[in-house]
What we know:
Blueprint lengths: L3 E6 L14 H13 L4 E3 L4 E8 L2 E8 L6 H12 L6 E7 L7 E4 L8 H10 L6 E5 L11 H5 L8 H21 L1 H8 L6
Parallel strand pairs: 1-4, 1-5, 5-7
Antiparallel strand pairs: 2-3, 3-4, 6-7
Amino acid sequence: MSCLKVIVGLGNPGIKYQFTRHNIGFMVTEHFANDLGAKFKEVKSYNSMIARERFNNQKIIIVKPQTYMNLSGKAVKKITSYYKILNQDLLIIYDDLNLQLGQIRIRTKGSSGGHNGIESIIQCMGNGDIPRLRLGIGTIPLDPEADYVSHVLSRFKKSEEENLKSMITFSTDAIKTIITDGFDKAMREYNRKQYL
């Protein structure tokens, strides 16, 4: 087992996108970093905001790519290449509109599911064997006229804020379990629950 883990939250940089559904990956990594007492600093050579800390006797690098969502793979590839990170020591955290708010899903591999950020990472890394934590942001009706872009770029409603906070805390606990006990235990413990 590697003594270095890289945790990547996906989102878009800038105030405009800060509290949108598409940026929940950023929100969770920020909460995780804060929980560890780690501070983000811009590292231009990685096109990312980076925080470093130790947890469970392992070095943790927490990453918020600043490339915009569709080019997330560019930043992830730079970091993994520099640190020679294996896929199993990487965790990508991102929004999923196919899950209800409060649901999370941990997987060790899979397709992009139509998510542009994870698709960029899969393309840059060369395969889909990349661990990920998908965060439910609330579904919209299966309708050809549905505006999915507007949905993911919308802000969470006032009525959703308490549930959002609970899911962020729940997700942080899931990340710690992954680091401490591995993916199998984390999947058994968290994939069946809805923390609402």
